[in-house]
Amino acid sequence: MYKAKAYSAASATSPLTRTTITRREPTEQDVQIEILFCGICHSDLHAARNEWSEFMSTTYPIVPGHEIVGRVTKVGSAVTKFKPGDLAAVGCLVDSDGTCPECRAGFENFCPNLTLTFGTPDKHFLGGVTYGGYSESVVVDQRFVLRILSNLNLAGAAPLLCAGITTYSPMRRWEVGKDKKVGVVGLGGLGHMGVKFARAFGAHVVVFTTSPKKKEDALRLGAHEVVVSRDANEMQKHAGSFDFILDAVSADHDINAYLNLLGRDGNLTIVGAPPKPLGVAAFALIMRNRNFSGSNIGGIRETQEMLDFCGQHNITADVEVIPIQKINEAYERLLKSDVKYRFSIDMASLKSE
Ligand SMILES: [Zn+2]
Ligand SMILES: [Zn+2]
Questions:
Q1: 141 alpha carbon – ligand 2 mean position (Å)
Q2: d(CA 65, CA 41)
Q3: How far is CA 89 from CA 7, 171, 215, 239, 303, in A?
């Protein structure tokens, strides 16, 4: 065991503050990573404030962070995939049973015995929970450590581990590609990645936004068209024409307005998590054999595929890099969607503290 600097929250109402945590020494299958950047995901904030308590109650202290990019500092004797000095990345998962049908199919993200990167029971520390990426280092089983190509900007690459795979996975599943018309609803951390992937896959990309001010930015990110969703005429022009729509809105909204834009067999996948149930009109689905589906991150194999794709196409998130000392301020700004489009913490700021 060794000590590592970290930032943690002591309760649902406490700010994140500097602390010291205990990490395990790498076992034979483990990779120890010096964390260089960690993205800030909205679920970090939900967990820190125990806002998803019905679904998963937070154990305190909590060290959030599951968009981790760093450099390998030590490996166990059985590690073959990595050596000290390599770049490495860790996303939302750090362990699973490896034997259940989900794991065998490459969907460790749905394993009933999975270990999340932060806040779930840690089998290496009985009675303890895992600590995430708001820390100077982390130790992870090599099966859950990903490779990352060195041409990528590392601060911008960190959010690929959650925002990236969350948007990449459903687009691959629903075969977004050439000659497909794709919509992205909500231009935030998830949505802006959706635009980049849809464009890279060769689709015709349309961004829906409530704010005309975002038009220019949407086009810069790769959209071919931008529709102001409050303009019913503009919406009507696109009725029945989409193959796929990625809905990344986490607030209450009229889902039927978007389902009606899908063509025959079209699919709308929701990746945002509005707090209240959405009122889906059966007719919006029955007409044209439409599909309404959800998606939750991705398995390890697909996450690696996504990172490789990003390396080849030089895709990263648009980030605002902050020192960890600004974490509480960043959370407040996140609540106001005041970030383009993801915060990435430069962990050098923690080392020097
Ligand atoms: Zn996340
Ligand atoms: Zn499993």
A1: 15
A2: 7
A3: 19, 22, 33, 41, 10
62-89 per-position pLDDT tens digit:
999 999 999 999 999 999 999 999 999 9
CB atoms within 10 A of CB 329: 12
| Cβ contacts of 101 within 8 Å, gap of 6 or more | none
- Two tokens at 253? 């909204």
Ligand nearest to the CA of 299: 2
In which residue are the tokens 């707090």 written?
Answer: 275
**What is the mean predicted confidence (pLDDT) over 175-204?**
97
DSSP-assigned letter for residue 321 = E
**Could you tell me which of 320, 333, 326, 319 has the C-alpha nearest to residue 353?**
326
299 Cβ contact partners less than 8 Å away, ≥ 6 residues apart: 105, 106, 107, 108, 109
Residue 216: partners with Cβ closer than 8 Å, 6 or more residues away: none
Q: How much distance in Å is there from the Cα of 39 to the middle of ligand 1? A: 9
**CA–CA distance, 174 with 254 (Å, rounded to integer):** 22
101 Cα to the center of ligand 1, angstroms: 24
**Residue pLDDT, tens place only, 204-218:** 999 999 988 999 999
CA of 263 to the centre of ligand 1 (A): 31
220/222 Cα distance (integer angstroms):
5
* Cα of 238 from ligand 1 centre, angstroms: 31
